[in-house]
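Sample entry (404 residues):
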Amino acid sequence: MTAQTSTPPKELFTVLAAGAVVLLVVHGLGRFIYTPLLPYLVDDGQFSAADGAAVATWNYLGYLMGAMLAIRWYRINQIRTLLPVALAVHVITTLAITQTDNLTLISASRWLNGVANGMVFVHAPALILEWLVLRNRASKSGLVYIGVGLGLLVSSGLVTGSANLLEGAGRWWPAALLSIPLAWWGALRLIRLDVPEVHRDNTGKPTTTRLLDRASVPLFLSYAGAGLGYILPMTFLPLLAKLELPAGHWLLDGTWLIVALCTIPAPWIWNRLGAKIGDLSALKLNFLIQLLGVLAAVILPDGIGLVLCALLVGNTFLGTVLLTQRIGRALHPHQGPRLSAAMVALYGFTQMVGPWLTKQWLDGGGTLVSAFGIGVAALAFGLVFVFFVPRPEDWHASSSGAGS
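Predicted structure, serialized as tokens:
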């Protein structure tokens, strides 16, 4: 199919905004609002810190399962059906969690919310990327992740602004109510996108390539390290601030606000940097900065390490996502949403492992700050494997790449 190059700026903005909005809903108001909520829910007596880690693990398990379902249902017509269904599940489960303090019901609701999150996080960006590629605008794809950064900022404001007004399960009401109109608007616009159903070869059959080969395996392994490395501060940083700092310290809520503010421009920064120096070079720099951020929380005292962790992780983790997704599609241009789903599934698995390992560490008598060392090791692992990923143009030019 011939690429379309005359997309009006207003249409481009609307599509990217719709994608950003649905990611704001499922990631900001679904997943990551739990991070600033966690210290309040522990203080309210809803559950302990260890139980809170277990709830997070259930949510990440759901995220993994949602991404795996997206591997199975990755065709455009399936995405058009499942995207609004997943957003509806997000709304229903967020409303449900406002009604219970039962740990089992909370865990079940967060698990199902994670399933919806995983599917939307695969389907929405993948659908938009295919739409952009058709119009020679793939370099804009990373901008959709601005919605995650805005979601972090919105979640921080909702939690802090309602902290003295709500308690226990009621603390989820702001997220539930805001999700309804945003999910509705985003879904309506995305399901109408003009995207062909499948890529086909000259015989009319769907085009396929191997998902795993010598080029993509190290990319998958590096992405696994990124998932485990970033999820610890993104789940437990405010709780770590609560444990290390005196009552009333501005960083008790401030760490999450710093992360949120840094995350908003991050997709634009890494989008531009990837275009300037190459996505692969930008990814190596991204891993290094992120590693230093998590390390700062382990080795530097009190507020200094917390601020550096919030700054450096907030500025990088979305860059890891958008750069890796673009490199993967460049290596396997006909995989499209299926490749994205596989990467998110792997990312989701390592994110699930992070809170689970933290719970085992805490139950065994370890400290939360020392548990962040797991994240440091994971990011170092990921950084090493980035150096084994070939540049897509070199891979396709080689005889092995051409025959894969």
